[in-house]
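Board notes (copied after class):
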Amino acid sequence: MSWIEKQRNILDFTLSSLLRRKGKNAALAIVYTFIVFILASVMFFTHAIKTEASLVLKDAPEIIVQRFVAGRQALVPEDYAGTIRTIRGVSAVKGRLWGYYYDPVFGGANYTLLVPDKFPYSDGTIAVGSGVSRNSRSVEGNILPFKAHDGSLTTFRIVEVLSSDSELVSADLVLMSEHDFRELFGVSPHFVTDITLSVRNPKEYGTVARKIADLLPDTRPIMRDEILRTYDAVFGWRGGILLVVLAGSVAAFVIFAWDRAAGLSAEERKEIGILKAVGWETSDVLMMKFWEGVVVSLASFLAGILLAYVHVFFGSSALFEPVLKGWSVLYPHFRLTPFVSAQDAITLFFITVVPYTVITIIPSWRAATIDPDSVMRG
């Protein structure tokens, strides 16, 4: 009998043995699948949101210059842009107007107000993100009130609700004209929120940033790579915190799996004794238990991975949404583009499948080395 044929027969017997104890094995598989599902969901979401953030930020400004007064961000004089243009290697300099608005009327949400490069509508009108539209229960044509810096009430007419396809970055966004922004916040025409610039040679980002800090000591240049690293650290930290919280569940599963694998029942011991009596070698018994562990662990692993994939990429990570996304009021509704890291999948495989498969062999080896007659007599 060839080796492959022998393994096929052992696997057939293993499957029939598992079916004879289907209640016990089903309970183990359900718990096993749930643990894999939880861990895989966190790992998939963390990796996908990091990838999504890197794709979104790839078109972000190469360097952002902010001004700080007494340790707090302050408005930047527009003439700072002229100083930055004198630095060799700088190709484009532009001032930006943006800010935050706290809306106490509709659930205490915070909106991000931004003046785009080209606002296609007239003064007194705004374009809002899907999150703002849902939170304020507003649609195109409705009036949205804002409290100005001097306490007066200003209203804007919504002329556009931004596409939900961009909700990851536009859920809390309100676009308006420069005139309306300066009137609402009382910003002087000679100031901007920050300054963005492009550099001809990417290798000179650090050099240009140091020159800006030397020429304008009250500013802080922020490079795009630093923003990417910050997002990576934030989402990695959130995912790590959730994994730590779930560590108790994982530990309980490990104890459960060890007890299940290490404690052979009298029926299983008797089965091993009968197999030894009819001519099975110790290696055959160990191979049977190895396949038993592989079938249970691999089936549970694949089921958990599949459920996690559906949960994260089609269910918007409903179980972990508040923890991992991080928005306080305006939770964006978006579907992540499927990004699964092979490294994460392999790591999860070795954490969940390999240990269980190994610990199923140890007690079986002990039983298989005992005299068959002694085993069957108990």
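Comment from the instructor: The two ends are 33 Å apart (CA to CA). The chain has 15 helices and 13 strands.
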